[in-house]
Design a protein that fits this description.
Elements: H1 26-38, H2 50-59, H3 63-82, H4 89-101, H5 110-117, H6 122-135, H7 143-154, H8 159-172, H9 175-188, H10 194-210, H11 215-225, H12 231-247, H13 249-256, H14 264-277, E1 285-286, E2 289-290, H15 292-306, H16 310-326, H17 332-347, H18 352-366, H19 371-384, H20 389-393, H21 396-401, H22 408-421, H23 427-440, H24 443-460, H25 464-478, H26 484-495, H27 499-513, H28 518-521, H29 523-542, H30 554-565, H31 572-588, H32 593-602, H33 609-620, H34 629-632, H35 657-660, H36 684-688, H37 702-708, E3 735-739, H38 769-777, E4 789-794, E5 797-806, E6 809-818, E7 825-832, E8 837-841, E9 854-863, E10 871-879, E11 882-890
Helix pairs in contact: 2-3, 3-4, 4-6, 5-6, 6-8, 7-8, 7-9, 8-10, 9-10, 10-12, 11-12, 12-13, 12-15, 14-15, 14-16, 15-16, 15-17, 16-17, 16-18, 17-18, 17-19, 18-19, 19-22, 22-24, 23-24, 23-25, 24-25, 25-26, 25-27, 26-29, 27-29, 29-31, 30-31, 31-32, 31-33, 32-33
Amino acid sequence: MYPYYEPDWSVLPPENNRRFNPAFNMASIRQVINEAVERGIMRMPTPTRLRDLIRQIRAARTAAEERAVVNKECAYIRSTFREEDSVWRCRNIAKLLYIHMLGYPAHFGQLECLKLTASPRFTDKRIGYLGAMLLLDERQDVHLLITNCLKNDLNSPTQFVVGLALCTLGAIASPEMARDLASEVERLMKSPNAYIRKKAALCAFRVIRRVPELMEIFLPATRSLLSEKNHGILITGVTLITEMCENSPDTLSHFKKDSGNREIVPNLVRILKNLILAGYSPEHDVSGVSDPFLQVKILRLLRILGHNDPDASEAMNDILAQVATNTETSKNVGNTILYETVLSIMDIRSEGGLRVLAINILGRFLLNSDKNIRYVALNTLLRTVHADTSAVQRHRTTILECLKDPDVSIRRRAMELSFALINGQNIRSMTKELLVFLEKADSEFKAQCSSGMVLSAERFAPSTRWHLDTQLNILVAAGNYVRDDVVSCTIQLISSSPAVEQAYITAKLWEALQTPNNCEDKQPLLQVAVWAIGEYGDLFMYSEKTDDVTRPMEKDIVEMYQKLLWAPQGSISSKQYTLISLAKLSTRLQAAQDEIKQIIDAFGSHLNVDLQQRGVEFSQLFKTHSHLRPALLEKMPPMQINRMSAQNGAGGSATSPDENGSSGDLIENGLEDESATITEGSNALLELLGGTSSQELSIPNPAKQVSTGGSVSNNRDLMDLLGDLDLSATNSNTAVESSTNGNVMPISSIVSPVGGLNLDINMSNSSLITGFMDDLSTPIESQSTTPKLTALEKNGLSVVLQPRKASGCLHVIMTATNSSLNTLEQFLFQAAVPKSFTLQMLSPSGSTLLPGGVVTQEMRVTQSAKAFLRMRLRISYTTDGNPVLEQTEVSGFPDDAFD
């Protein structure tokens, strides 16, 4: 009998609780738990949704917090993959793809993606194929697994599944996969379903890009795509044909042919015309323009088909004119179509009026407020300026206004286009505008702009004085940002000008030096100024006064030079120019000799080794060797420089060889691309003068003389630089240079532009000028006449010259003997003589020297002026595959050889 139940009792033992159910015991509880486990309710917690994961990652305040969230989620996803949990696989793969897009490793989900692609559910397939496109690449072996899955889905009755497979194939197709499934794609291009045909055409586009040889498979189906009325299929078909024509000339010819009244150009013209004349179409209208994407694609294909094809160009001229005149320009959509139209007009063989219309469209683009449109217009005009320069010239004012644009890219393109527009008629006005731009331009523009202006002035200068003034203005405006070519071009221009102009520009340069900060901020101007004053100081000081510049006193010039030499902000290069110029002024000025000597002597203890060496060497010219100073410091002869037709750094102003009036090929010494170098073993005279320039020697080309029978070249005499000095021939019969690597320096590069002297002598390998002056001040006795002169004796190769007097000329027989055990192949003997002689070289007896073999060659030398005969020889050959180059100089020929 149970006791009475009291409602306010909170706890009663089971035996006293009348509500206790005896059937609800521990066995029942255990059974309920087991059933729950079997149903999978307690096996894994419900995974985080993708939106919740994104919210957690975005809420992370540091990179470490973000990594912690991602690592925790990746660990959970890995555990679900191990448990083979198929319920939440789609959600987990979606989260893994988001983690992959953040840059974290997610490759462990590749096989799970393949499992989803094999699922019959469309949602699983969609995530699976998306994962395959993101996580798989052609280097993975899982491609073998996905190929079969793609093939099955390409034959699916559901169009969306087929679309997924085509999209995936186009994204990850390897060459092997493309070859395996190309036939399936070609079959689907003929499907009656428009959605599938569009997807198949896009997939074919990616397949032929990966494997171009599969192009022929898709040709029949591709041509039929242009007869479709569906705009999606049309645009994919045009895209596919464009890719084919761009990558295969044969396919381009195939589409140009008339195949049963199905020629492609009239068909494209018809489609484009229908788009222009069509009324409002809500399905394809974009800002009032009917399907601009399809119009742009068709215009691009027409440009490819009409390139260098007069017939096709004529067929599309009318429709291009209609597009150019009927397209709305108030929207960017219309500007896009007009831009493609301009490109097509300029690329095909269009009529002259149509080209003018295209350039006028670009001119209107320059007035647009959108910076991108202005940039595109300038860029296109720069590409097409040479096709119709006169039409572009009409927009010159607008182009020059773009030089003031705040956008740096627009200013750069406007500057390059301005250089391309310069000609002989507008050189003055264009240079004036560009000088204003140069003065206010950023530092990044000054170097390129100054070089371009120098080259333009060199081509179209109306007068020498204008050219000189322009060069001076460029140096002033560009300051320290000018390139080295501007300095060398200005020096070359001054040296080749008449004496009156030399005096004028020297006065102008002196005036420019008086401006404050010009010496500090305009080092190139300083270099040109001191060079000109040093060379033409006598003309500047003592010639007739033809300008308004106040000529200074000699002491003013010396004081200015002293200020420049000891200025702490001056560069070492500028001080080198100034020191040499000061030495030259000692022979130009009538007084101030003592002041100049004191300044030069002070540099004998300069901290800079180069300036110290120059100071010591020049000091010798004021002491024991003062009688040599006037001759050694004479004016440099006019410099003649052959320039390549193309320029560096002038933007769009590079010109073709025909425009420059020269071929642009630089041939030095008649040796074409061959060159030579002088090393330490050369004689003292050549080392003092900085080597022999490319214009001081007459070097015939043996390769050309085989056919022409001889070559004559008259150049400047090496001894002209010494003036009235009476020097005998130097005794130098030994080789001065040997090179086995074939990398040699041109002879012309040895001459220093600084004052015409190269005094950068290596002090560890050469004597100072004191020793040279001692040698030069002592008469050198001529060598006794010998029947044979040994030119080279090295590595078993012996080269001997045997002179023989003949009527009116000297015959010299070269005999090369190989006493080594190696065969010398490609043997080439070359020679050069001074200007006073003419050298003719006959064909050699051979070009291969076997062990013990001999090669001979005859030379004929005639004399045009009294001088000593010297020869510079270059001997090149190949032994054991290694090229060898030997250079030597020979003198000691008979004094009466030409009597």
